[in-house]
């Protein structure tokens, strides 16, 4: 699986006084898409951390196209960019209920050994779940 779709509704607390989603919340939408993408593979951040792996974000990019507003239903499409090695790269598309693209973006996360705090290779169980 290289693509996943996750839906969420814009909550009031995510908006500014004009009812527009505050730009900083898009990082959380990307995280929601990413964690649900993993969950659909049968992997959770909790499981990875129990096994001694963490995934810090080392790069984040967001391109704003249209405003999302309070009560919009957003679909976060999450795409795996390529086979993960020491890093895993995602692309995102956030679409509203009218099929309008709200924003696009990308993130890069590094697999880190929690004991040594050094980069490590993608766990074999994740590669297997991805078919690599």
From TrEMBL:
Database matches in Pfam families: 4HBT_2
Listed Gene3D superfamilies: Hotdog Thioesterase
Keyword Cell inner membrane set for record: no
InterPro entries found in the cross-reference section: 4-hydroxybenzoyl-CoA_TE, HB-CoA_thioesterase_AS, HotDog_dom_sf, YbgC/YbaW
GO molecular function, one term: fatty acyl-CoA hydrolase activity
Keyword flag Zinc: no
Keywords attached to this entry: Hydrolase
Coiled coil residues, start to end: none
Annotated PANTHER family: 4-HYDROXYBENZOYL-COA THIOESTERASE FAMILY MEMBER, NOVEL THIOESTERASE SUPERFAMILY DOMAIN AND SAPOSIN A-TYPE DOMAIN CONTAINING PROTEIN (0610012H03RIK)
Homology family: Belongs to the 4-hydroxybenzoyl-CoA thioesterase family.
Protein name stated in the entry: Thioesterase
Species this chain originates from: Polaribacter filamentus
Lineage: Bacteria, Pseudomonadati, Bacteroidota, Flavobacteriia, Flavobacteriales
């Amino acid at each position: 699986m290289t693509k996943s779709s996750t839906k969420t509704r814009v909550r009031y607390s995510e908006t500014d006084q004009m009812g527009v989603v505050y730009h900083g919340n898009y990082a959380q939408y990307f995280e929601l898409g990413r964690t649900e993408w993993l969950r659909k593979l049968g992997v959770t951040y909790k499981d990875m951390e129990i096994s001694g792996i963490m995934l810090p974000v080392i790069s984040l990019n967001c391109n704003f196209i249209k405003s999302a507003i309070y009560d919009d239903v957003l679909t976060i499409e999450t795409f795996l960019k390529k086979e993960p090695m020491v890093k895993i790269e995602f692309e995102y598309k956030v679409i509203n209920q009218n099929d309008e693209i709200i924003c696009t973006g990308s993130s890069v996360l590094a697999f880190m050994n929690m004991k040594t705090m050094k980069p490590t290779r993608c766990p074999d169980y994740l590669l297997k779940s991805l078919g690599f």
